[in-house]
Design a protein that fits this description.
Two copies of one chain form a homodimer. The first copy, chain A, is of the alpha/beta class and 346 residues long. The first copy, chain A, has 13 helices and twelve strands. In chain A, the strands form two sheets. In chain A, strands 2-1-3-4-5-11 form a six-stranded parallel β-sheet, sandwiched between helices. In chain A, strand 6, helix 10 and strand 7 form a beta-alpha-beta unit. In chain A, helix 2 packs across helix 4 and helix 11 crosses helix 12. The longest helix of chain A is centred in the first third of the chain and has 17 residues. Chains A and B meet through helix 5, helix 6, strand 2, helix 7 and helix 8 of A and helix 5, helix 6, strand 2, helix 7 and helix 8 of B. Chain A binds a DNA duplex (30 and 30 nucleotides) through helix 3 and helix 5.
DNA sequence: TATTGTTTCTGAACCGGTTCAGTGTGCTGT
DNA sequence: ACAGCACACTGAACCGGTTCAGAAACAATA
């Protein structure tokens, strides 16, 4: 009658609410009430049940619970470049909030192909995550019927850095202004030929930064030259490689470069130093993000401080708010501030 | 009769297997067969059902499925220092394998308190992850009844870097040998006073590296001095700060330092340069991990190449193997090789 | 004593899938 | 014409929780 054998037979975690109910001589409804600290259970019964729970190491199945209450207490996150320190820091912010609020985090694909990216979102939805945090969706992905369905149907969703063509919740920083400030700073320092090491072409963040770069020229009555915009990418190696190519050729070269992010900037600086070009005397470099490593780079990096941790926090908070919202949620946009940190590279 | 209204009413993803069954005029068992590509369904029926599925954007609930089949196709991962590039790289390896094998990844706590660490594991178990990947458990956590239960009961579990007092599956690198090689290299270069910037004291990896450091002295008939072992930590800032303290004091200082990891080494190098101490002429520095930044550091870092990505891959593969193993699994130990990369810092 | 009220507890339905024994249909061979 | 057999399909139980109407037990009130 008492299913003790089951425990000893199959080991840890193989006892369920029915077993607990039988062992405690109460109904499973009562056990459920005890588990969830509901009122209407006598102290005596509560203790009896809790004793059994402890004794048999019972741990309620979150999956059964999820099925029943139609909430999984889980959010899905799709981040490209998880090994980019900037995103790692965001993750940390997300994670801290989720932890506090009792959510666990399901990780979706990182930078795979577009088709895999959509698959990954589909998987997360199949897992019935309560909400989705998405960073850097491929542009093409936004064409997928799946994604537009998702957004149209008010599935709780927060984008990091924004996405074209869709009106969703967004957490981002003032990329345009930040870039504007960085480039203005260079202009004020007398630079006229300022390059932009551009990030991924399908990134909205990159578009905004490029826009800020453009505006700085406009507002300072300096005609900006398209040839100084280089498609580079977002990795250390890419910054290094493009730096080497551009600055070892004899063509007309910029005297300063604003970079999409710190990784690229650090790569660039290394390529310049390898080419015996001095930083900042010959070429000034400004990065973006202010990752930890920025101040330890060969030439400590002048860069835009990007509050990655806070972005993660804000995104998680907004998402959880959207999840808890009963009504059709309004789409919100949270924009955090950045500031220029002057170090040695410019 | 036809519950179409439901779809239009509640939006995306609110249709279930019963609805699909009704809309297709078949039983839910048949729908289930179609979803899972089982045989015994006529081509005609299959297409009819698939048509409905597409039309209504039906996506089976993984949570209901999990409850039924008692597998979640999910693994849990608990990693401290997710913003450490070394671990980020591991994550990537884990992720790639899991992706391929159809597993999603649930993230557990990062470096919180001991009690939270155990809580985090408990949460993952409640979520019924099929297996657990754990890195850098606090030493105290291993005392918890929960953890020993977990291990005793053969819950599929793989540790990264090992854990004291328990016999579990482990994926790690040959830390002792690697440290031995690094220190031997320094000894061969004529250094006698070699320091060790030690990592977290509760880390088995750190113990092994320290052991390798010790043995190198023993095998070279040089008496090693305990005073050259400094408790530092695992972060950039910690390396910098301790470097500053140690090398600005007038006491007897080492002429070379082997560091627990690259982050610490880079921090140390920066502190040395700030103190006008030349690297490697005055003090040689060797790191551990070979993170991307290592070669872009102020003094390109001589370090132990640690195959982080491969560690992640091996860990995920081992875990999935354990999950699929019907019998009581044997505990396995996978040890990957490292090698010394000579750059400029030593 | 009968009635009402409170508190504690329970039975059964439900969440959305999977599974499998068994039903029904059509085709084969004799 | 009928046994025998595939094949396609279904009904119902099951996974492990939550929920809630109502039963049972007991106390208080009229």
């Amino acid at each position: 009658m008492v299913p003790t054998f089951k425990f000893y037979l199959t080991g840890f975690m193989n006892i369920n609410i029915n077993d607990v109910a039988k062992l405690s001589n109460v109904s499973k409804a009562t056990v459920s009430a005890v588990i969830n600290n509901k009122v209407g259970v006598s102290e005596e019964t509560r203790e009896k049940v809790q004793g059994i729970i402890r004794k048999f190491n019972y741990r309620p199945s979150q999956v059964a619970r999820s099925l029943s209450i139609k909430k999984t207490k889980t959010i899905g996150i799709v981040i490209k470049e998880i090994d980019n320190p900037y995103f790692a820091r965001i993750m940390r912010g997300v994670f801290d909030i989720c932890s506090n609020e009792g959510y666990t985090v399901l990780l979706g694909s990182s930078e795979l192909s577009v088709s895999k990216e959509v698959k990954s979102l589909e998987t997360l939805v199949s897992q019935r995550v309560d909400g989705l945090l998405v960073s850097g969706l491929h542009e093409e992905s936004s064409d997928s019927a799946f994604i537009s369905n998702l957004i149209r149907s008010n599935y709780p969703l927060v984008m990091l850095g924004g996405i074209k063509n869709f009106n969703t919740n967004v957490v981002t920083v003032n990329n345009v202004d930040a870039a504007y400030n960085a480039v203005t700073f260079l202009l004020k320092n007398g630079h006229k030929k300022i390059g932009y090491f551009s990030g991924p072409t399908n990134s909205l963040q990159n578009d905004d930064r490029k826009e800020g770069y453009r505006r700085a020229f406009a507002d300072n009555d300096i005609s900006f030259q398209k040839k100084y915009i280089y498609d580079v990418g977002s990795y250390l190696g890419e910054g290094y490689q493009h730096g080497k190519e551009i600055f070892s050729s004899s063509a007309d070269k910029p005297t300063a470069v604003f970079c999409y992010n710190d990784l690229v900037a650090i790569g660039l600086i290394n390529s310049l130093l390898d080419l015996q070009i001095r930083v900042p005397e010959d070429v000034a470099v400004v990065g973006f993000d202010d990752i930890d490593f920025a101040k330890y780079a060969k030439t400590p990096l002048t860069t835009i401080h990007n509050p990655a941790y806070e972005v993660g926090v804000a995104a998680a908070e907004l998402l959880i708010k959207q999840i808890n919202q009963k009504e059709k949620p309004l789409t919100e946009k949270v924009v955090l501030d950045t500031y220029l940190i002057k170090r040695n590279s410019a």
